[in-house]
């Protein structure tokens, strides 16, 4: 058994079949995790509640933690992170599929290099996991990742595995709506943690209506808040901030059809 915890938040609206598919991809890992932590903070529908109970009852390494006072996704992830018992934590969402060698390859990097956080490219699909729409590619070296950080999130959150203690010491997750991951990575970079992305596509993610959720005034406000934080952390220069705001805010305010075209061209 490995030294990996899987941190998997489950929303009340999660699809039970997708959750089972995600969990199956975990069980098929060549290096299986020591535990799978399913974390919730909402009242669950009967269907998703039954799916979680089924997974926990049939897999002795899976458990469910319901944390009703956790605020937002960041609060759920931080509460779950604190309850993980293994030194390395792999992130997944309830509609993701991890490739069989994902955990083995990422664990090797964390154990044999200076990296504290490791991710990969991410394939996105609508209905058929075997027919991805696009691949969100990210920089691979720490220096390249640091260069991206001031204006674009350089890690695909559902692909990451990290040193639990190092991330907690950097402050862990917090309630930072719509930017929980970028917020965490920026603070980890400022704290001196080392990053790496494998030049492989190790996770497939379902993206139903993702583009529509990425737009609107709330997202524009989140971009402003993120830009301000990057300046306060000393990661972004004035020029970086200008580039960030000019490149990322206008698409948030465009009509969904236009935003969809831009997203397909640039994959975030």
Automatic annotation (TrEMBL):
Residue span(s) of domain Glycosyltransferase 2-like: 16-163
- Stretch forming the signal peptide: none
Q: Which Pfam families match?
A: Glycos_transf_2
The cross-references to SUPFAM superfamilies, in alphabetical order and at most eight, read: Nucleotide-diphospho-sugar transferases
InterPro entries, alphabetized: Glyco_trans_2-like, Glycosyltransf_2, Nucleotide-diphossugar_trans
Q: Which domain of life is it from?
A: Archaea
Q: What Gene Ontology molecular-function terms does this entry list?
A: glycosyltransferase activity
Which keywords does UniProt give here?
Glycosyltransferase, Transferase
Give the UniProt family note.
Belongs to the glycosyltransferase 2 family.
Q: What is this protein called?
A: Glycosyl transferase family 2
